[in-house]
Design brief:
The protein is of the alpha+beta class. Helix content is about 40%, strand content about 35%.
Length: about 270
């Protein structure tokens, strides 16, 4: 009985010790399971360096490439001129100034009509009536009213632009001293007919530039991943090519030479690197 009692008293102690050991094992396993994934991955410093290197390479590859611009130009004769002019009169009476401008403007329309300029291509761009003052010793005095009628029209007979200016400015049936020539602008009426050839040449120019850069850098040129174009809407014209001069012949005449216009087409392209 004494021996049995001894074992009965010892058994709870053994069970307690076993339970404590199992808890320590479970806690140890639990702590390992709770380690963050990133911490597990980067416990090995060599592995961390390897992954960092791979990430850097991916970013570099996604951003690498060659970006260039290409252009193509062609010189053509102008086939359209836009003329902007004004009729101006000043009078002490605003009504008389308006009447003077109205009469001169009718003469203008008659000249344009006789030169077969279409009515729908003639437009009034501005009409103003403004009082005129003279300032003296800090005081202002009304001296009259200035009326201005600005008009713009298109003309296609390029050989007779000077003759048209003469008809408007000189002679008994002209607008005369009320005329103001504001601007003469030469252009191409239909530049789109040049676009296909210009576009092709501009792209070829960009490809040649990109290939040269790739050769110099010792890399292989890949496929284009970006293309944008700029259509030829603006024309450049050397200032010396447009002349408007008075020639002293028996009858005064104006000689106007439009020269040649340069149409330029531009593209931007990006190429990958193999």
């Amino acid at each position: 009985m004494k021996l049995l009692s001894k074992y009965i008293l010892t058994l709870p102690i053994i069970l307690f010790l076993i339970s404590c050991g199992e808890n320590e094992i479970n806690n140890s396993q639990g702590n390992q399971d709770n380690i963050p994934v990133n911490a597990k991955v980067y416990q090995d410093s060599s592995l961390a360096k390897s992954m960092s290197s791979q990430t850097s390479t991916i970013i570099s590859n996604s951003q690498s490439g060659i970006t260039v611009s290409g252009s193509s130009s062609v010189m053509v004769e102008a086939d359209l001129v836009e003329i902007s002019l004004g009729i101006e009169a000043t009078n002490l009476s605003v009504s008389k100034a308006v009447e003077e401008v109205s009469v001169a403007n009718q003469i203008l329309l008659n000249v344009l009509n006789s030169n077969k300029i279409k009515e729908n291509e003639i437009a009034t761009t501005r009409y103003t009536i403004s009082p005129q003052y003279q300032y003296s010793q800090g005081k202002s005095k009304l001296t009259g009213y200035k009326v201005t009628h600005n008009t713009k029209f298109k003309y296609r007979d390029m050989k007779n632009v000077g003759s048209l200016i003469d008809q408007l400015s000189t002679g008994p049936n002209s607008v005369g001293n009320n005329l103001r020539i504001n601007n003469i602008n030469f252009s191409i009426e239909n530049p789109s007919k040049y676009e296909n050839e210009l576009r092709k040449n501009a792209v070829n120019n960009a490809i040649k530039k990109a290939q040269s850069l790739a050769d110099y850098a010792g890399v292989s040129l890949g496929s284009p991943f970006y293309i944008s174009e700029h259509s030829p809407t603006n024309f450049t014209q050397p200032e010396s090519d447009m002349m408007m001069t008075k020639m002293a012949y028996a009858a005064p005449s104006t000689e106007i030479n439009s020269g040649q216009l340069t149409i330029t087409f531009n593209v931007n392209m990006g190429f990958s690197i193999k």
